[in-house]
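sry for the spam today, last one i promise. C-alpha coordinates for design, 445 residues
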Protein backbone atom coordinates (compact mmCIF):
# COMPACT_ATOMS: atom_id res chain seq x y z
CA UNK A 1 0.00 0.00 0.00
CA UNK A 2 1.11 3.50 -0.50
CA UNK A 3 -0.43 6.85 -0.22
CA UNK A 4 -0.20 10.13 -2.04
CA UNK A 5 1.09 12.23 0.77
CA UNK A 6 4.70 12.83 -0.02
CA UNK A 7 5.94 16.34 0.43
CA UNK A 8 3.05 16.79 2.77
CA UNK A 9 3.31 19.09 5.70
CA UNK A 10 1.14 19.34 8.72
CA UNK A 11 -1.42 22.09 8.39
CA UNK A 12 0.03 23.46 11.60
CA UNK A 13 3.46 23.58 10.03
CA UNK A 14 2.18 24.99 6.78
CA UNK A 15 0.32 27.81 8.41
CA UNK A 16 3.14 28.86 10.61
CA UNK A 17 6.05 27.75 8.43
CA UNK A 18 8.55 27.97 11.26
CA UNK A 19 11.97 29.13 10.18
CA UNK A 20 14.84 26.84 11.05
CA UNK A 21 17.64 29.09 12.13
CA UNK A 22 19.49 27.41 14.91
CA UNK A 23 19.43 23.91 16.36
CA UNK A 24 16.33 23.40 18.44
CA UNK A 25 16.67 22.64 22.13
CA UNK A 26 16.75 18.87 22.54
CA UNK A 27 13.40 17.25 23.12
CA UNK A 28 12.96 16.09 26.69
CA UNK A 29 13.79 12.52 27.35
CA UNK A 30 10.63 10.72 28.36
CA UNK A 31 12.42 8.36 30.72
CA UNK A 32 14.19 11.15 32.58
CA UNK A 33 10.94 13.01 32.96
CA UNK A 34 9.20 9.90 34.28
CA UNK A 35 11.91 9.43 36.88
CA UNK A 36 11.80 13.03 38.01
CA UNK A 37 8.78 12.62 40.25
CA UNK A 38 6.19 10.04 39.27
CA UNK A 39 2.80 10.05 40.82
CA UNK A 40 3.18 6.72 42.56
CA UNK A 41 -0.53 6.30 43.20
CA UNK A 42 -1.17 6.64 39.47
CA UNK A 43 1.67 4.30 38.56
CA UNK A 44 0.31 1.68 40.93
CA UNK A 45 -2.89 1.36 38.84
CA UNK A 46 -3.45 -1.97 37.05
CA UNK A 47 -1.75 -2.32 33.64
CA UNK A 48 -3.85 -0.64 30.95
CA UNK A 49 -4.40 -3.75 28.84
CA UNK A 50 -6.75 -3.12 25.90
CA UNK A 51 -8.06 -4.84 22.78
CA UNK A 52 -6.15 -2.37 20.61
CA UNK A 53 -2.62 -3.33 19.64
CA UNK A 54 -0.05 -0.61 19.10
CA UNK A 55 0.45 0.03 15.39
CA UNK A 56 4.21 0.30 15.87
CA UNK A 57 5.06 -2.53 18.28
CA UNK A 58 1.85 -4.60 18.72
CA UNK A 59 1.76 -4.16 22.49
CA UNK A 60 -1.79 -4.13 23.85
CA UNK A 61 -0.89 -1.90 26.79
CA UNK A 62 -1.73 1.75 26.20
CA UNK A 63 -3.11 4.86 27.85
CA UNK A 64 -6.05 6.94 26.61
CA UNK A 65 -5.03 10.43 25.45
CA UNK A 66 -8.18 11.95 23.98
CA UNK A 67 -11.32 10.96 22.14
CA UNK A 68 -13.56 12.75 19.67
CA UNK A 69 -16.69 11.07 18.37
CA UNK A 70 -17.37 13.27 15.35
CA UNK A 71 -14.26 14.49 13.58
CA UNK A 72 -14.37 15.20 9.83
CA UNK A 73 -11.54 14.38 7.47
CA UNK A 74 -9.25 17.36 7.35
CA UNK A 75 -6.50 16.56 4.86
CA UNK A 76 -8.38 14.78 2.08
CA UNK A 77 -11.86 16.13 2.54
CA UNK A 78 -12.04 19.77 1.50
CA UNK A 79 -15.75 20.53 1.06
CA UNK A 80 -16.87 22.69 -1.86
CA UNK A 81 -19.99 24.12 -0.24
CA UNK A 82 -21.12 25.09 3.21
CA UNK A 83 -23.82 22.46 3.08
CA UNK A 84 -21.32 19.78 2.15
CA UNK A 85 -19.02 20.96 4.91
CA UNK A 86 -21.73 20.82 7.56
CA UNK A 87 -22.82 17.36 6.46
CA UNK A 88 -19.40 15.75 6.40
CA UNK A 89 -19.31 12.43 8.10
CA UNK A 90 -18.21 12.58 11.73
CA UNK A 91 -15.59 9.96 12.53
CA UNK A 92 -14.47 8.48 15.83
CA UNK A 93 -10.94 9.48 16.77
CA UNK A 94 -9.76 7.62 19.86
CA UNK A 95 -6.14 8.58 20.52
CA UNK A 96 -3.98 6.36 22.72
CA UNK A 97 -0.32 6.16 23.66
CA UNK A 98 1.51 2.85 23.79
CA UNK A 99 2.91 1.95 27.19
CA UNK A 100 5.73 -0.02 25.59
CA UNK A 101 7.14 2.12 22.76
CA UNK A 102 5.39 5.53 23.33
CA UNK A 103 3.64 5.44 19.94
CA UNK A 104 0.50 7.61 19.72
CA UNK A 105 -2.18 6.06 17.55
CA UNK A 106 -5.91 5.87 16.82
CA UNK A 107 -7.57 2.74 18.06
CA UNK A 108 -10.77 3.22 16.05
CA UNK A 109 -9.42 4.00 12.59
CA UNK A 110 -11.15 2.89 9.41
CA UNK A 111 -9.09 3.19 6.25
CA UNK A 112 -12.21 2.91 4.10
CA UNK A 113 -13.27 6.41 5.12
CA UNK A 114 -10.38 8.00 3.25
CA UNK A 115 -10.53 8.60 -0.53
CA UNK A 116 -6.82 8.24 -1.30
CA UNK A 117 -7.29 7.02 -4.85
CA UNK A 118 -9.52 9.86 -5.93
CA UNK A 119 -8.49 12.71 -3.67
CA UNK A 120 -5.47 14.90 -4.10
CA UNK A 121 -3.68 15.73 -0.91
CA UNK A 122 -4.64 19.26 0.01
CA UNK A 123 -1.80 19.99 2.38
CA UNK A 124 0.31 23.02 1.78
CA UNK A 125 3.70 22.17 0.33
CA UNK A 126 5.00 25.58 -0.49
CA UNK A 127 6.69 27.93 1.91
CA UNK A 128 10.32 28.82 1.60
CA UNK A 129 11.59 27.23 4.79
CA UNK A 130 9.84 23.93 4.02
CA UNK A 131 11.31 23.98 0.49
CA UNK A 132 14.72 24.83 1.86
CA UNK A 133 14.40 21.99 4.34
CA UNK A 134 13.80 19.54 1.48
CA UNK A 135 16.73 20.91 -0.50
CA UNK A 136 19.02 20.54 2.50
CA UNK A 137 17.72 17.07 3.33
CA UNK A 138 18.39 15.82 -0.19
CA UNK A 139 21.88 17.29 -0.14
CA UNK A 140 22.58 15.65 3.21
CA UNK A 141 21.31 12.22 2.23
CA UNK A 142 23.08 12.35 -1.14
CA UNK A 143 26.34 13.29 0.59
CA UNK A 144 26.13 10.95 3.59
CA UNK A 145 24.78 7.89 1.77
CA UNK A 146 26.35 8.38 -1.67
CA UNK A 147 23.00 8.66 -3.45
CA UNK A 148 24.46 9.28 -6.87
CA UNK A 149 23.64 7.26 -9.97
CA UNK A 150 21.39 4.94 -7.97
CA UNK A 151 17.95 3.45 -8.53
CA UNK A 152 15.64 5.21 -6.09
CA UNK A 153 12.03 4.17 -5.50
CA UNK A 154 9.76 6.57 -3.66
CA UNK A 155 6.63 5.09 -2.11
CA UNK A 156 3.92 7.73 -2.24
CA UNK A 157 5.83 10.18 -4.41
CA UNK A 158 3.00 12.72 -4.74
CA UNK A 159 3.80 15.15 -7.52
CA UNK A 160 7.41 13.97 -7.53
CA UNK A 161 8.99 17.06 -5.98
CA UNK A 162 11.38 15.11 -3.77
CA UNK A 163 12.37 12.66 -6.50
CA UNK A 164 12.95 15.56 -8.87
CA UNK A 165 15.61 16.81 -6.45
CA UNK A 166 17.22 13.37 -6.26
CA UNK A 167 17.18 13.01 -10.06
CA UNK A 168 19.49 16.02 -10.30
CA UNK A 169 22.20 13.82 -8.77
CA UNK A 170 22.01 11.29 -11.58
CA UNK A 171 19.64 8.94 -9.79
CA UNK A 172 17.09 6.92 -11.76
CA UNK A 173 13.90 7.86 -9.96
CA UNK A 174 10.81 5.67 -9.79
CA UNK A 175 7.67 6.76 -7.99
CA UNK A 176 4.52 5.01 -6.77
CA UNK A 177 1.50 7.21 -6.36
CA UNK A 178 -2.03 5.78 -6.45
CA UNK A 179 -3.67 9.21 -6.40
CA UNK A 180 -4.15 11.63 -9.29
CA UNK A 181 -0.72 13.20 -8.68
CA UNK A 182 1.03 10.33 -10.49
CA UNK A 183 0.56 12.09 -13.82
CA UNK A 184 2.25 15.20 -12.52
CA UNK A 185 5.17 13.11 -11.30
CA UNK A 186 5.45 11.53 -14.74
CA UNK A 187 5.48 15.02 -16.28
CA UNK A 188 8.61 15.69 -14.18
CA UNK A 189 10.38 12.84 -15.94
CA UNK A 190 9.86 10.33 -13.15
CA UNK A 191 9.06 6.69 -13.92
CA UNK A 192 5.70 6.93 -12.18
CA UNK A 193 3.30 4.11 -11.37
CA UNK A 194 -0.28 5.06 -10.46
CA UNK A 195 -0.60 2.18 -8.01
CA UNK A 196 0.00 1.11 -4.42
CA UNK A 197 3.49 -0.20 -3.79
CA UNK A 198 4.01 -3.84 -2.88
CA UNK A 199 7.27 -5.34 -1.66
CA UNK A 200 7.11 -7.85 -4.52
CA UNK A 201 7.82 -5.00 -6.98
CA UNK A 202 11.39 -4.93 -5.68
CA UNK A 203 12.14 -8.10 -7.65
CA UNK A 204 11.97 -6.24 -10.94
CA UNK A 205 12.78 -2.70 -9.76
CA UNK A 206 16.03 -3.68 -7.96
CA UNK A 207 16.06 -0.51 -5.86
CA UNK A 208 19.27 0.77 -4.26
CA UNK A 209 17.24 3.11 -2.08
CA UNK A 210 13.65 3.47 -0.92
CA UNK A 211 12.15 6.77 0.09
CA UNK A 212 8.86 7.04 1.96
CA UNK A 213 7.94 10.46 3.30
CA UNK A 214 4.70 11.43 5.05
CA UNK A 215 3.01 8.18 4.11
CA UNK A 216 3.57 5.77 6.97
CA UNK A 217 1.50 7.84 9.42
CA UNK A 218 -1.54 7.22 7.18
CA UNK A 219 -1.30 3.43 7.07
CA UNK A 220 -3.76 1.24 8.93
CA UNK A 221 -1.04 -1.43 9.34
CA UNK A 222 2.35 0.29 9.07
CA UNK A 223 4.21 -2.62 10.62
CA UNK A 224 2.82 -5.01 7.99
CA UNK A 225 3.76 -2.55 5.27
CA UNK A 226 7.39 -2.46 6.45
CA UNK A 227 7.63 -6.18 7.09
CA UNK A 228 6.38 -6.87 3.58
CA UNK A 229 9.28 -4.79 2.27
CA UNK A 230 11.84 -6.36 4.62
CA UNK A 231 10.78 -9.90 3.68
CA UNK A 232 10.76 -9.05 -0.03
CA UNK A 233 14.27 -7.57 0.23
CA UNK A 234 15.52 -10.84 1.68
CA UNK A 235 13.81 -12.92 -1.00
CA UNK A 236 15.07 -10.60 -3.76
CA UNK A 237 18.57 -10.52 -2.25
CA UNK A 238 18.46 -6.73 -1.97
CA UNK A 239 19.62 -4.44 0.81
CA UNK A 240 18.35 -0.98 -0.13
CA UNK A 241 18.72 1.99 2.17
CA UNK A 242 15.32 3.04 3.43
CA UNK A 243 14.81 6.80 3.96
CA UNK A 244 11.63 7.61 5.86
CA UNK A 245 10.03 10.72 7.27
CA UNK A 246 6.84 11.32 9.25
CA UNK A 247 5.48 14.07 11.51
CA UNK A 248 6.96 13.93 15.01
CA UNK A 249 4.43 14.06 17.84
CA UNK A 250 6.80 14.60 20.77
CA UNK A 251 6.65 18.39 20.76
CA UNK A 252 2.86 18.38 20.47
CA UNK A 253 2.69 15.97 23.42
CA UNK A 254 5.07 18.12 25.42
CA UNK A 255 2.89 21.19 24.80
CA UNK A 256 -0.45 19.34 25.25
CA UNK A 257 -1.25 20.47 21.70
CA UNK A 258 -4.35 18.66 20.49
CA UNK A 259 -4.76 19.90 16.93
CA UNK A 260 -1.93 17.69 15.67
CA UNK A 261 -4.32 14.76 15.84
CA UNK A 262 -5.86 14.32 12.38
CA UNK A 263 -8.13 11.45 11.42
CA UNK A 264 -5.94 10.71 8.40
CA UNK A 265 -2.87 10.39 10.64
CA UNK A 266 -3.62 7.07 12.29
CA UNK A 267 -0.07 7.01 13.63
CA UNK A 268 1.70 9.82 15.47
CA UNK A 269 5.31 8.83 15.91
CA UNK A 270 7.83 9.49 18.62
CA UNK A 271 11.47 8.93 17.74
CA UNK A 272 11.38 5.79 19.83
CA UNK A 273 8.21 4.37 18.28
CA UNK A 274 9.49 5.10 14.75
CA UNK A 275 12.72 3.26 15.48
CA UNK A 276 10.94 0.43 17.31
CA UNK A 277 8.58 -0.18 14.40
CA UNK A 278 11.39 -0.40 11.85
CA UNK A 279 13.43 -2.71 14.04
CA UNK A 280 10.44 -4.90 14.71
CA UNK A 281 9.68 -5.09 10.99
CA UNK A 282 13.19 -6.35 10.24
CA UNK A 283 15.41 -3.33 9.66
CA UNK A 284 18.67 -2.12 11.18
CA UNK A 285 18.16 1.54 11.99
CA UNK A 286 21.18 3.66 11.08
CA UNK A 287 19.91 7.11 12.02
CA UNK A 288 16.89 8.80 13.64
CA UNK A 289 16.67 12.59 13.79
CA UNK A 290 14.11 15.16 14.84
CA UNK A 291 14.08 17.91 12.22
CA UNK A 292 12.28 21.06 11.10
CA UNK A 293 12.03 22.58 14.53
CA UNK A 294 11.31 19.10 15.94
CA UNK A 295 8.06 18.77 13.97
CA UNK A 296 9.19 15.86 11.77
CA UNK A 297 11.42 12.85 12.29
CA UNK A 298 13.61 11.18 9.68
CA UNK A 299 14.98 7.67 9.83
CA UNK A 300 17.49 5.78 7.71
CA UNK A 301 17.50 2.00 7.84
CA UNK A 302 18.66 -1.11 6.04
CA UNK A 303 16.98 -4.52 5.96
CA UNK A 304 18.48 -6.76 8.64
CA UNK A 305 20.24 -9.76 7.09
CA UNK A 306 17.93 -12.73 7.56
CA UNK A 307 19.82 -16.01 7.41
CA UNK A 308 16.98 -17.64 9.34
CA UNK A 309 14.43 -16.62 6.70
CA UNK A 310 16.65 -18.15 4.01
CA UNK A 311 17.07 -21.35 6.01
CA UNK A 312 13.35 -21.57 6.74
CA UNK A 313 12.52 -21.09 3.08
CA UNK A 314 14.87 -23.88 2.01
CA UNK A 315 13.60 -26.25 4.70
CA UNK A 316 9.92 -25.46 4.15
CA UNK A 317 10.29 -25.96 0.41
CA UNK A 318 12.09 -29.28 0.71
CA UNK A 319 9.69 -30.48 3.41
CA UNK A 320 6.68 -29.63 1.27
CA UNK A 321 8.14 -31.50 -1.67
CA UNK A 322 8.79 -34.58 0.50
CA UNK A 323 5.24 -35.04 1.75
CA UNK A 324 3.67 -36.77 -1.24
CA UNK A 325 6.86 -38.70 -1.93
CA UNK A 326 7.02 -40.25 1.54
CA UNK A 327 3.32 -41.03 1.64
CA UNK A 328 3.76 -43.08 -1.53
CA UNK A 329 6.93 -44.72 -0.22
CA UNK A 330 5.44 -45.80 3.12
CA UNK A 331 2.23 -47.07 1.53
CA UNK A 332 4.23 -49.02 -1.06
CA UNK A 333 6.12 -50.78 1.74
CA UNK A 334 2.94 -51.61 3.68
CA UNK A 335 1.21 -52.85 0.52
CA UNK A 336 4.23 -55.05 -0.28
CA UNK A 337 4.08 -56.53 3.23
CA UNK A 338 0.39 -57.20 2.77
CA UNK A 339 0.96 -58.89 -0.61
CA UNK A 340 3.70 -61.03 0.91
CA UNK A 341 1.19 -62.25 3.50
CA UNK A 342 3.01 -60.71 6.47
CA UNK A 343 0.95 -59.96 9.57
CA UNK A 344 1.58 -56.43 10.82
CA UNK A 345 0.68 -54.49 13.97
CA UNK A 346 0.93 -50.76 14.51
CA UNK A 347 2.12 -49.71 17.99
CA UNK A 348 0.52 -46.42 19.07
CA UNK A 349 -3.07 -45.54 18.24
CA UNK A 350 -3.49 -41.98 19.47
CA UNK A 351 -1.52 -38.75 19.24
CA UNK A 352 1.38 -39.10 16.83
CA UNK A 353 0.37 -42.70 16.17
CA UNK A 354 -3.10 -41.63 15.05
CA UNK A 355 -1.53 -38.84 12.99
CA UNK A 356 0.74 -41.33 11.21
CA UNK A 357 -2.13 -43.76 10.59
CA UNK A 358 -4.29 -41.00 9.08
CA UNK A 359 -1.59 -39.22 7.11
CA UNK A 360 -0.57 -42.44 5.38
CA UNK A 361 -4.21 -43.58 5.07
CA UNK A 362 -3.55 -46.86 6.88
CA UNK A 363 -7.09 -48.12 7.20
CA UNK A 364 -8.15 -51.43 8.71
CA UNK A 365 -7.98 -52.99 5.24
CA UNK A 366 -4.26 -52.33 5.15
CA UNK A 367 -3.38 -52.89 8.84
CA UNK A 368 -6.12 -53.91 11.24
CA UNK A 369 -4.13 -54.50 14.43
CA UNK A 370 -3.29 -51.49 16.57
CA UNK A 371 -1.60 -51.86 19.97
CA UNK A 372 -0.96 -49.21 22.61
CA UNK A 373 1.29 -49.34 25.69
CA UNK A 374 -1.21 -47.29 27.68
CA UNK A 375 -3.94 -49.61 29.05
CA UNK A 376 -6.30 -46.60 29.25
CA UNK A 377 -6.36 -46.49 25.44
CA UNK A 378 -7.51 -50.09 25.11
CA UNK A 379 -11.19 -50.31 24.19
CA UNK A 380 -10.98 -47.12 22.19
CA UNK A 381 -10.59 -46.74 18.45
CA UNK A 382 -8.10 -44.95 16.25
CA UNK A 383 -9.51 -41.50 15.41
CA UNK A 384 -10.38 -41.26 11.75
CA UNK A 385 -9.62 -44.83 10.61
CA UNK A 386 -11.44 -46.75 13.37
CA UNK A 387 -9.18 -49.73 14.18
CA UNK A 388 -9.80 -51.06 17.70
CA UNK A 389 -6.93 -50.19 20.05
CA UNK A 390 -5.76 -53.20 22.03
CA UNK A 391 -3.36 -53.99 24.87
CA UNK A 392 -0.06 -55.76 24.10
CA UNK A 393 -1.53 -59.01 25.42
CA UNK A 394 -3.56 -59.19 22.22
CA UNK A 395 -0.36 -60.18 20.40
CA UNK A 396 0.11 -63.30 22.54
CA UNK A 397 -2.78 -65.05 20.84
CA UNK A 398 -2.69 -63.05 17.60
CA UNK A 399 0.95 -63.14 16.66
CA UNK A 400 2.30 -60.80 14.03
CA UNK A 401 5.46 -60.82 11.91
CA UNK A 402 6.24 -57.15 12.10
CA UNK A 403 5.48 -54.25 14.41
CA UNK A 404 5.63 -50.69 13.11
CA UNK A 405 6.25 -48.34 16.07
CA UNK A 406 4.37 -45.17 15.23
CA UNK A 407 6.11 -42.70 17.56
CA UNK A 408 9.86 -42.23 17.13
CA UNK A 409 10.45 -40.26 20.31
CA UNK A 410 9.16 -43.19 22.39
CA UNK A 411 10.52 -45.94 20.13
CA UNK A 412 13.35 -47.10 22.43
CA UNK A 413 11.01 -47.26 25.44
CA UNK A 414 8.49 -49.20 23.38
CA UNK A 415 11.24 -51.50 22.10
CA UNK A 416 12.29 -52.29 25.70
CA UNK A 417 8.67 -52.87 26.68
CA UNK A 418 8.13 -55.22 23.73
CA UNK A 419 11.34 -57.17 24.37
CA UNK A 420 11.73 -57.09 28.17
CA UNK A 421 8.19 -56.79 29.54
CA UNK A 422 6.25 -58.78 27.00
CA UNK A 423 9.03 -61.00 25.64
CA UNK A 424 8.09 -60.65 21.97
CA UNK A 425 10.88 -61.17 19.43
CA UNK A 426 8.87 -59.70 16.57
CA UNK A 427 10.83 -57.62 14.00
CA UNK A 428 10.46 -53.96 14.83
CA UNK A 429 10.19 -51.07 12.37
CA UNK A 430 9.93 -47.31 12.59
CA UNK A 431 8.93 -44.53 10.25
CA UNK A 432 12.21 -42.72 9.62
CA UNK A 433 13.69 -40.53 6.87
CA UNK A 434 10.57 -40.64 4.74
CA UNK A 435 10.29 -44.42 4.77
CA UNK A 436 9.81 -47.50 6.93
CA UNK A 437 13.07 -48.80 8.36
CA UNK A 438 13.97 -51.70 10.58
CA UNK A 439 14.75 -50.64 14.16
CA UNK A 440 18.19 -51.98 15.05
CA UNK A 441 20.66 -51.11 17.80
CA UNK A 442 22.45 -48.69 15.48
CA UNK A 443 19.34 -46.94 14.19
CA UNK A 444 19.54 -43.22 14.88
CA UNK A 445 16.08 -41.99 15.61
ZN1 LIG B 1 4.06 0.42 20.88
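last one done:
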Amino acid sequence: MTLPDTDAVHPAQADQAPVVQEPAAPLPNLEIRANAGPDLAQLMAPPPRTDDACLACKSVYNYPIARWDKMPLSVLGLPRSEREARHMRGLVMDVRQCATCSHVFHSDFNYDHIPYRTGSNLVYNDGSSWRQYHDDLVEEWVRDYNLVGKRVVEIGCGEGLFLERLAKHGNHCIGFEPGPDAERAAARGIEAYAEYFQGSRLFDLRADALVCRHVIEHLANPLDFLEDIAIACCEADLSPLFFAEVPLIEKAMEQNRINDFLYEHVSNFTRNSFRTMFERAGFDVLDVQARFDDEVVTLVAKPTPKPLQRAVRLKATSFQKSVQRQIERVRTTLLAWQEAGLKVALWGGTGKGAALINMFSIDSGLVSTVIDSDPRKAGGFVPGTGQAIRTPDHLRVNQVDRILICTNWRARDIEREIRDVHGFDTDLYVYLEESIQELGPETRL
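The radius of gyration is 32 Å. ok im logging off now
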